[in-house]
Amino acid sequence: MTTTPDRWTRSDNPYDWMAREQDPRQSLANPVGEKATLVNYLRHYRLTLELKCEGLDAEQLARRSVPPSTMSLLGLVRHMAQVENHWFERVLKQQPAVEQIYDTPEDNDGDFNGAVADPAVVAEAWATWRDRVASSDAWLDALPEEDLGATVTHRGEQSPIRDILVHMIEEYARHLGHADLLREAVDGRVGQ
């Protein structure tokens, strides 16, 4: 039987692990305007990643899904730090000299391959992800809404900022589907 942390009140809905009024994502409800909507979806999914991983130890976070896959919740955290770094630092901020975080020429899946059951690796992954998210949010906060249609160069093509933000939302949404299954395999927790 799955237990819930003390700070949560169990929801009446069997697919929610906390009562709706305790869900930190509720503060993101009802955005006004296109930029606020895109930013709120992105922040909602980032919070969901944290919630999906909350309360797990290093071994649980690093637990692989189904062989031969190297996917784990810890790998997803590391991967999303790398995604934030690439799209915001390298593409949107146009700083191509910013290095990849985990991937190397020898291992282009370093984000997942290096996700091992070590508390220091877990702490570093969360610190890196939070640092990249804070940097991304600072850039987003300063972006005027009318600039969503402005373009940046990526791989020799012009990409609207709006499209890159939608891609970031898509990237989180896709991987949160993986996180749902990974978390359920660890301790049976589903939903939310």
Automatic annotation (TrEMBL):
Highest rank taxon of the organism: Bacteria
Segments of this protein annotated with the region Disordered: 1-29
Family annotation (SUPFAM superfamilies): DinB/YfiT-like putative metalloenzymes (SSF109854)
Protein's recorded name: DinB family protein
Naturally occurring in which organism (per UniProt): Myceligenerans crystallogenes
